[in-house]
Amino acid sequence: MTSRRSPLRSALLILGSVAALAALAFGGLVVALGGNQAVSRIGATFGVQIEFAGSGLRPILTYGDADSHFADLERNRTQHYSRHLPAGPVATTDGDGAAGLYWTDFRGPARDGSYRHGRLNLDWPKEGLTPIWKQPIGEGYASFVVAHNRAFTIEQRRDQEVVAAYEATTGRELWTHAWDGRFDEMMGGPGPRATPTWYDGRLYALGASGRLWCLEADDGEVVWERDILRDSQARNLPWAMSGAPLIVDDLVVVQPGGSDGWSIVAYDRETGDVVWHVLDDIQSYTSPMLITLAGQRQIVTVTATRAVGLTLDGKLLWEYPWKVSIVPNVAQPLLVGPDRLFLSASYGQGAAVIELTGAKPPFGAETVWSNNRMKNKFSSSVLHDGYIYGLDESILACMDAATGELKWKGGRYGYGQLLLASDHLIILTERGELALVRATPNGHEEVARSSAIEGKTWNVPALADGRLLVRNAREMAGFDLRVP
User: Fold this and answer.
1) Whole-number pLDDT of residue 85
2) What single string gives the DSSP state of each residue in 381-413?
3) Cβ–Cβ under 8 Å, residues 414 and 430
4) What is the mean pLDDT of residues 180-204?
5) Residue 99 has pLDDT above 70, yes or no
6) N or C: which terminus of the chain carries fewer CB neighbours within 10 A?
7) Any idea where the domains of the chain sit in the sequence?
8) Is the pLDDT of residue 393 over 80?
């Protein structure tokens, strides 16, 4: 963990930047240099870690190499267990996701990126927010989920994947569950991608290579474990399993992407037994969602080739072709009306709103509008008062959900992430800054900005009880945004 940059450190970062740019210029992209590992070796020579932005072209530099980072993390966690930190409050409300103390799923309880539990303090100091805690974390792109003042995530620590529980108010590590496994690829780097899911006192965590764990949230004790890729005889994706497990009543729904009816699988959440499995689609990087669309409570997800709605026992309700030519879908669908769903993707795809038609299943799915004005790449959009806000590639944009009309576009935040809260957008930029933007169709209005964490940041922030939790592959931090 680092604080302000020293002159020496700044010089090293400049040298590392020159090395990275030279690597690109003479290697014709990372591939020609032998991959991410070769560029990392160049950076290590200059005391920096070189990663690549979502564009795949620009370097993002972080001080220190992987070994020193893990050494810092291990020293930090040793201190957690060797000294007493003040305990925060423990929530006692029911675990149905209705209380503000809860952020139980990827992008929030409704998986739509919206915080609906009271007003936040949006009067940020000019000098920036002060974290209530900040410390190293393992690698990977998962987010936090929060319940009972505990924040849970999944990380890569050396050659193990680790599910970790932290006290949300102090950052103190409470328990871990680890297993041998390391996923690493050239452009994105190492670590698990899928955010765990909390439900009724248990945590459901999916590793990068398909290990699905059900753990007791109090102490990390294993309830059951499955290998969803082995169960479905499916191959892993190039950027690993990324979909957060979805709890639907007594089921855990995941998307391993197997053929012969094993694309989407539902396990019994108490025992881990297979309950049903359907479709033949290759999986995508999206997470399944539970929504009510066209009056029907259903599971909605986007595979590599289409958006689909399923009954709670796995029967196909509707489908809509949605295929990206280069990379399977990443962005989450967004409910924008009782019968309407918003879809978006990068790599030349664009955006569309579809509407379900028909009085009963199977429903038709018709295009209301489509354009290339909102191309969500790694991030997903949010809806506020009839307007869609999201990152069109790396630039923030606002469009009318009813018509697709672009209202404005402005503000470069890289391939970061955003949430909706208190009529504002809280944006975690690709370089680890926090930005506060007013959610209005009248124009781009950034009202505050603050440093947060260091390094490439593709992880979605989390909000629970007015506390904002952020992380990337190197640092994690908490900020108190409660109204005084």
Assistant:
1) 58
2) -EEETTEEEEEETTEEEEEETTT--EEEEEEE-
3) yes
4) 95
5) no
6) C
7) 7-63, 66-285+478-482, 287-329+331-377, 379-457
8) yes
* The total number of residues written for the chain in this structure: 484
Helix (H, G, I), strand (E, B) or coil at 209: coil
With contact defined as beta carbons under 8 Å apart, do 242 and 193 qualify? yes
CA dihedral 17, 21, 24, 26 (to 10 degrees): -130
Angle, to 10 degrees, between the axis of helix 36-45 and the axis of helix 7-27?
A: 140
**Topology, domain 66-285+478-482:** Methanol Dehydrogenase; Chain A (2.140.10)
The lowest-confidence range among 127-131, 325-329, 337-341 is 325-329
Over residues 222-238, the pLDDT tens digits come to 999 999 999 999 999 99
Residue 299 in tokens: 């599971």
365, 358 contact by CB (below 8 A): no
Which pairs from 11-18 meet CB under 8 Å and 24+ separation? 12/46, 12/47, 12/48, 12/63, 13/48, 13/61, 13/63, 15/46, 15/48, 16/42, 16/43, 16/46, 16/47, 16/48, 16/50, 16/59, 16/61, 17/59, 17/61
Give the mean pLDDT of 309-336.
Answer: 96
Q: What share of the chain is helix, strand, coil (3-state, %, to 5)?
A: 10, 40, 50
Fold observed for domain 379-457: Thrombin, subunit H (2.40.10)
Query: In this model, does residue 262 exceed pLDDT 60?
Result: yes
In this model, does residue 3 exceed pLDDT 50? no
Tens digits of per-residue pLDDT, 337-368?
999 999 999 999 999 999 999 999 999 999 99
Q: Are 237 and 257 in contact (CB under 8 A)?
A: yes
Residues 6+ apart with CB under 8 A from 71: none
pLDDT digits (tens, 9 = 90+) for 451-468: 999 999 999 999 999 999
Single-letter amino acid code for the residue at 76: N
Half-sphere exposure of 150 (CA within 13 A, CB side): 26
Q: Calculate the average pLDDT of the chain.
A: 90
- Residue 120 sits at φ, ψ, to 5 deg, of -115, 160
Answer for the pair 373, 387: CB distance below 8 angstroms, yes or no.
no
Spatial neighbors of 470 by CB under 8 A, at least 6 apart, are 428, 432, 434, 452, 453, 457, 459, 461, 462, 476, 477, 478, 479
- Count of C-beta atoms within a 10 Å radius of residue 252: 26
